[in-house]
Fold this sequence. Notes:
CATH topology of the largest domain: Nucleotidyltransferase, domain 5
CATH superfamily of the largest domain: Ribonuclease H-like superfamily/Ribonuclease H
Largest sheet: 6 strands, mixed
Shape: rod-shaped
CATH class of the largest domain: Alpha Beta
Amino acid sequence: MVKYREILRLHAQEVSQRGIASSCSTSRNTIREVLKRAQAKNLSWPLEATWTDHDLQELLFPEKHASSDFRKRPDCEAIHQELAKPGVNLALLWDEYCLTCRSQNEIPYSYRQFCRFYHAYARKTKATMRIKRKPGEILEVDWVGQTMTLNDHLTGEEMPVYIFVAALPCSQYAYVEGCLSMDASDWIAAHMRAFTFFGGTPRIIVPDNLKTGVTKASRYEPVIHASYQEMAEHYQTTVVPARVRHPKDKASAESTVGHISTWIIASLRNQTFFSLAELNEAIQEKRTAFNARPFQKKKGSMETAFREEEQFALRPLPTTKYELATWKKATVQYDYHIFIEEMYYSVPYDYVKHQVDVRVTSTIVEVFYHHFRIASHKKRTGPTGQVITIMDHMPADHKKYMTFDADYVLKWGNEAGPNSFTTVQRILSSYQVEKQALRACLGLIKLADTYSVERVEHACQRVLTYTPRPTLKSVQTVLKTGSDKQPLAMSKENESQSPTTNPYGFTRGPEYYGRKTK
Length: 518
């Protein structure tokens, strides 16, 4: 707007037209035309105090206002009502106003005039400060406070969709997507897709102090969520959370959140979506248009600035994609197992009643104690309640019990001696049920623990001399009487001196009646 009042005031003080043009930042031709029109209208300083530059323009240059009659005047009351909605601003409303005018073959006002009409109804001011950043150094991430919705195509129930935003401060290039939750898995997965979108990783990630990213907030030593820290290490970047109640530490993300609320969430407010893929497809279209919007005070857009100034500075993506993992805590029970995702996994029995950290992926379950891995299992799927046990995790006694079978006792008998081995074989063959035979063999092994392996070997040898079917009881009797300690040759000599056994067991024989046999 030309400063008509100031021009007439300076002219009344006999200031030259060159001086007036310099003071009012207006060309001398305009100064000359204003003075000429004022003289024709008999206008001179001083003027009425209520007259404004707009009133003087209407009086001196009525043709400028005549041309505006062909333009559609914006509805300021409707604008004020729309601005009360989250994420809506004048730029978006002017863009919609222009589309409406063109569809009705009407001429819209410029954005500047559009704002003037509204500010006559309600004035609003903002102040911002811009901070320069090094290219590829920082990525600022955040959740948008405003959510979008999905509609169930059967019930019509609305489900909230949370919007993730990641912005590079140097170029203001942004990534946006919708997630069904704000838990750690969706938070980390959104980061991974953002890295893929940018084609590289920054040196520093600046999140807010949300629970999915920061376990314990601190100005100097914040504790990062284990899965989030592991993901950052995989992509060779660092997580440096913003200070508590200092949103300016990630000003670019906060600014982008505001723009996204307008250009994506608010612009899609009248559309209905029935799936997350459909919603993210619409978000992608709006995101592409948002990044391609030209700058107001310099050439190019956020996309061209990213391609030309920042993409080269990002670190390359790793060759393998990060496998999303969740961390949990568990206490080792007395049976040296932990209960994770409805399954039981074993750990070394030394850690009974200790609390351990468990890392769970889609394929593996790892157990850590004080950052040292103590067990690893392949993740089991299927019916719940399955028990996965590694033999090395069991105590020696439990391990013996688990491996106690026919092969075990035969191996023990072979190590004890040939007579013990034969005794074990014949005991196993003498029972119809193997479990009963194994119990008898276990008693034989316990005798070895009580008396010694050598004595059991000698006892088995003695028992085998007078019966082909040895039993645990016969071996036990020999050990109790100490017969195994007598030389086997002396025993045979005593047996040769003993009376000859009568083949007819039911007769007394001549010895009974005192007859001497030759």
